């Protein structure tokens, strides 16, 4: 996982936090990490929702 995004699982909910101050903008690295993270979460049958926050 990238330093630019953080993932926390809370029961059946995954919370992805963008950590790229000051504006929490997307970069090529964070978008690649997002893609990888979403693919992993799609394979996890215990996760029902994804919340993206910054």
From TrEMBL:
SUPFAM superfamilies tied to this protein: ClpP/crotonase
Keyword Lyase: yes
Keywords, in A-Z order: Lyase
GO molecular function term, any single one: enoyl-CoA hydratase activity
UniProt-listed InterPro entries: ClpP/crotonase-like_dom_sf
Keyword Transmembrane applies: no
Taxonomic superkingdom: Bacteria
Name of the featured protein: Enoyl-CoA hydratase
Organism expressing this protein natively: Marinobacter nauticus
């Amino acid at each position: 996982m990238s330093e630019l995004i953080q993932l926390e699982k809370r029961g059946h909910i995954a919370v992805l936090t963008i950590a790229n101050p000051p504006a929490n903008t997307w970069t090529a690295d964070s978008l690649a990490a997002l893609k990888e993270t979403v693919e992993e979460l799609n394979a996890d049958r215990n996760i029902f929702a994804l919340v993206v926050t910054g």
